[in-house]
Amino acid sequence: MTNDDVLNVFREAGALLEGHFILSSGRRSPVFLQKALVFSQPDLSEKLCKALAEKLKAKFGQIDVVAGPAVGGIIPGYELARQLGARSIFAERVDGQLQFRRGFSIAEGERVLIAEDIVTTGLSFRETVEALESLPGEVVGGACIIDRSNGRADVGCELVSLAAVDFPDYDANDLPPELAAMDAVKPGSRGLA
Ligand SMILES: O=P(O)(O)OC[C@H]1O[C@H](OP(=O)(O)OP(=O)(O)O)[C@H](O)[C@@H]1O
Ligand SMILES: O=C(O)c1cc(=O)[nH]c(=O)[nH]1
Ligand SMILES: [Mg+2]
User: Is there a domain that residue 27 lies in?
Assistant: First the structure.
């Protein structure tokens, strides 16, 4: 799939939003990819993850465990695991810190892939890498559906994206006038009680 093919899936699902958004990192953007609207359609999740899984097989070979950060990483992580013949686990925030709970485990020597929906600054990805450090297994790399930093984000491991695009984001104290004129909304889960 090309970048345009992937963006068209989001556009047709009504998931390519315009406005004033507060991102997970606290940065602001006039564009938001509401992935939940795409992942609410299993055929679309399957289509995107199948194309991404082909790239991942070629790059990393055998994967035993796919680990994604909640909430956004759960569905693509599960569908990628299905496509790759791997297990799927997820990390969730406890007092703001990502932890693997619910009895999830990784065995010594297992090959682990980190799966995300969207990468902006790479912060959530790096936190997932950190959460995996105290567990057995080898992180062989990472995957995301859309890298909106177009390859600039440091994710703490080798990243394969299905699409890489350049969407603007700004410091909250340095907004362009058209964004400053709009009320901001925060769609993600980070920081919610
Ligand atoms: O690269 P980053 O700057 O970390 O931004 C990307 C992250 O932001 C979103 O998660 P969010 O914390 O908003 O919550 P969600 O997963 O519940 O949507 C998205 O799912 C990624 O995890
Ligand atoms: O950076 C984010 O928080 C973010 C951006 C985006 O486009 N979509 C999303 O779910 N999160
Ligand atoms: Mg997330």
Answer: no
